[in-house]
Amino acid sequence: SCRDRYVNIKIDNTDETNTFCPGQSKWNPVVAFSDITVTYYGSGSSNTFELRYKRESILCTRKDSFKCSSGICLPMSQVCDGIEHCNDGADEIGCETGVFAVKGVEEGRLDATNWLKSKYSDVFGWHENTHRGIVALYLGNERNFTSMTAEEKLIEKQLEVQTLASLLRNETDPLKANQLSMYINALLITCQDPHNFHGFDLVQLLKDQMEVTPLMIRPVAYLALCNAEESLPIKAASDLGKVLSSDSEYPFLLDVQAATVMALSCLNSDNTTDFTDIDDATNKTELVSFSQSEYQEAVNNLKKFQSPDGSFGNVYTTAIVTQALLSANQENAKDWSLNKSVSHLLQHLSSSSVDFLSAYLILPILNGKSLSDIRKTDCSNDVQHRFDGDPIVDVKNKLGPKMRVQYCLYIGDEKDIIHTISLRVPKNITVYDVMKLAEAADNKYKFEWKQMKEKIYVYNIAGITNDFGNGQFWLQYLGKDVESITHSNKSPDKVILQNGAQIVMWYKEAHI
Length: 512
Description:
The protein is built from 15 helices and 15 strands. The chain is α+β, with helices and mostly antiparallel strands and 512 residues long.
């Protein structure tokens, strides 16, 4: 009885005390959120009692918590956040959403990647589809930009060879807008500059083609221009509007409208209220005649074409429409079935009917990507790749028309020492390229630089280093001639020069 033996459990900092007596039929557990004091009262020389307890995090008492197998509990905000907090990673299991939640997606992506690679030739690449092959491969798989595999280097070299060959034939066999668009997309996703590819400006070539390009092809071209972060022609707004409002009975119109939505999604990547296009050359802002509501209407219109089996027509149309809806962030929308659409595409990939075009269109989807994601390619860690090999040989071997530029070193605020070199160089060359050529020609132009964020920082030329103690630094000046030079903070590898350009690197006092 409680007169002879009992246990008191007191919860610290409260008035609550629980008493347990022998012979009780029901034992209610004591739940405490602070320390407890257990006191045994009894008479006699041999007395014992058994205490069972379970220690848990206070979070475990909350309904909105997640319990790991080790016993620790997490707030729900740490579940499915991309970081494994439980030792066994249980908090990140079953977190897939959208495309990645569809059964068989990962296996299908790997199978499609292997199928695509099996069609690649070390000699001919993917033949006339090399630009498409590399886009599908890179959109469909996560790349390590800090180190390229031998396979990737070979694929990219094949792309360069084929692109140059097509450009050299351009005068006798002109490249059409759709071909230029595919080359631009491929160069962008491999972190190469389509504005200055071995002296050729593919972006300008594409813009020059727009007037003679059929309306049906223009959305693809506008998407490529947007991916290249190039301002669109003034007619772009009306062109895209005409495609979306067309009452043509062509069955392939849906494909073109899907490409139009992708182009608009690219333009809308900043989620602005309206679509704007800024021409950096004139600093003029053109308000494209699409509001968010009109854009959303175009997106919703695509969804209406989905069949009960998940398709939007043939497999190619299904893939391009699915890409368009992904580009518009419609993965989790309730008014269409992403699961059915992707499952339909996976079924095609596992059939004997799979071909290059369908693999090209489907593979990016299995990685949750679309052609409009090319614009988001992160090349910040790829600078060393762009300067692999001998940059001097690369510049000297550039094809296309040549021009002359002048490069000067000014040392001292009053130009105490001046060094000047005149160089004949390919068109569309950068300041960085000219500095490398000058360095190779004359050791006094030797310079040292470091990549900082997305800019090249030149800190030493001719053995003279930036000196914060004296307040003197190397500054870049550009102009058409010596009299017109002005200070420029642009990265030397981003400045494309014109014929007769004057480059001055001036070691002088800098002012903030």
